[in-house]
Structures are given as structure tokens and as C-alpha cells.
Amino acid sequence: MKKARLIYNPTSGKEILKNNLADILIAIEGAGFETSAFATTPAPDSAKNEARRAALAGFDLIVAAGGDGTINEVVNGIAPLAKRPKMAIIPAGTTNDYARALKIPRSNVKAAAQVIQKQQTVKMDIGKAQETYFINIAAGGYLTELTYDVPSELKSIFGYLAYLAKGAEMLPRVKPIKMRLKYEGGEFEGNASMFFLGLTNSVGGFESIVPDAKLDDGKFSLIVVKTANLFEIVHLISLVLNGGKHVNDPRVLYVKTNFLEAAPVDPKKKMMINLDGEYGGDAPMRFENLHQHIEFFANTDEISDDAILGIELEEKEAGIEFVKEVERLNDEDEEE
């Protein structure tokens, strides 16, 4: 019998994983895997180190259970290896972007584990930034820094709305950074409030930021927001919510590329890099797309051929309300 190792965060989702551990193990074993479990600890790289150990020990499947941070750690544990086990995910975090992309149930951990029984997989592209790996996004610029300022307690309670609330607070303080970006077939040099590399189309609950994302084509979707004007950014957000129409706006550079080299034009200027929502170091930095690097269990019959997922109604309505609120800012507010 094949072997699976469940690596789970016992504190995720109000201990929902811990309380449903038996059902999760039964579901994985029902897919034909002899299964054992490892609870992560507060020690640095707990999930990463266990994933690497399990992979080197010959486990056939590693199931990462928790938020996107737990999944990222597990990926970082196995991505450098020549022989990598398959992966599955059981979401129990706040936004669960990766689960959205793979069409994994996000409100029922048992149902998420049962996806493995369908025996459907997709070989996912993985991003590499220097020696660190990421599964969903890499970004730089002032606009991306809001994710660092959302308290974990707020994320847990409000999830998607926490990012919108913090974004509304920070928008008046957005400043441009003069950056140099080299990508496949081109180069950008100039002021921008953000560059963004996407591997999937789900980012912080938004599912239309990268409307034509492919999960396994070996390409990043590169977005460069070339304005730092408050009201222009608000307009771009409204275009995002209106079916991803921002990609055709002249204030946005949108291209596909298998690599990116990013740096501030002035080496004295700091440009922080965000990898999957966490601080990942400072530019200059090179990003590479590792084509079909890790095979994930997924609901492939629910992922459309063009990998476009629809934003959920309540989130779209919340986003529209966010835009309305920010549009109420007047010039005096912007000065403040």
C-alpha cells in the first residue's frame, strides 16, 4: 500500500483540523494510502522540515492541512528535491486561495480530504524566488505591503473583508517606486505602485485579478500598476471586480512570462518582496516559473479548460461596497 503523511496545523480554523482528524485520516486511507499524521509546532519551518523528511523517507503523498502558509511551507520542503511526492491540500485558513484554484471544498475538511479519492491530479507550476518557493503570488511595491499590516486576529474573523478594510485605509498613502522589470520578451522601467506575478487567479479572495490564469502552462501572469493616484487605483479595482477588465487598461502592463528580474532603479531605495502574502526579502530579485513542478490532487472536472473561476456573489458585493466607500474620499482626505 502507498504511504501518505498528513501535515496539519492544529490551530488552524479554530482547531477544526484537530477536531476532525479521525475523519480526515479515514478519507485519505479510503483513497488507498496508509496514512500517518504530524501536527506542526510553533518552531520555525516545522511543516517544511517534516515535508522534506517524509519525501526523503519515500512517502508517496503529502497532505498539507491548514492555511496557505502551511501549504507554502510544505511546498518549500519538497520543491528542491529531485524526486517529489504528490501533494493534496485540506484548507482551514482565511482566504484559502490555493484551494479556490484547485476547486477544493473550503468549508468542509472531510469533503476536502475525500477529493483525494477521485484520483484526479494536475501538475502545478511553482514559483522560485532566489532559493525560496511560492505557490500563488510574488509582488513588490507599496500597494502589496498592506498584507503585512492586517492583524492575524482580523484575518481570522473577517477574512476577505479584512484586506478590503486595510486597503481602504492605506490607499491614500500609496506612493510610486521607480522600478526596472525584465521579463520574457520585454522590459519596463518607470514609476509603478506595484508589480505582481500570479500563478493562479485567486488572490486574497479576488478571483478576477488574473482572469486568464493557467495553472500549468509554465507562465506567470505579470501585472504592473503604473499609477499611484488614489482615484485611478480605485477605478482599476472597480475594473477588477467587473470581470477583470483592468488587464486592458493603459495604466496596467499585463503580460505572460516565465521569469522576472525586479529591482528598484535607485539601489538606495528599498522594495520589499511579498511571497504568498509574507515578507520574502528585498529586491533585486529573480523569479522563475518551474513548469509542472508538483502534482496536486484537485477537482479537475470542476476546473474549466481555461482555468477561469467566478468570484463568489458575497465577495463581489463586498468589493463593490469597498469601491463605493473609497470613492467617497475627497481631495482633502487624499491630502491627509
Structure characteristics:
336 residues; 6-stranded antiparallel β-sheet
Concise summary:
The protein has eleven helices and 16 strands.
Strand order of the largest sheet: 6-5-16-13-8-9
Rg estimate, integer Å: 20 Å
| pLDDT < 50 stretches | 153-162, 307-313
State the share of residues found in helices, binned by percent.
Answer: 25-40%
Question: What fraction strand?
Answer: 25-35%
Distance between the termini: 64 Å
Overall mean confidence score, pLDDT: 83
What is the H-and-E element order? EHHEHEHEHHEEEHHEEEEHEEEEEHH
Structural class: alpha+beta
Backbone shape: elongated
Largest sheet: 6 strands, antiparallel
Number of separate strands: 16
Annotation field: number of helices: 11
How would you sum up this structure, described in words?
By secondary structure, the chain is an alpha+beta fold. Helix content is 29%, strand content 30%. It contains 11 helices and 16 strands. A hairpin with a 2-residue loop joins strand 14 and strand 15 (278-282). The protein is elongated and about 55 Å long. Mean pLDDT is 83; it is low at 153-162 and 307-313.
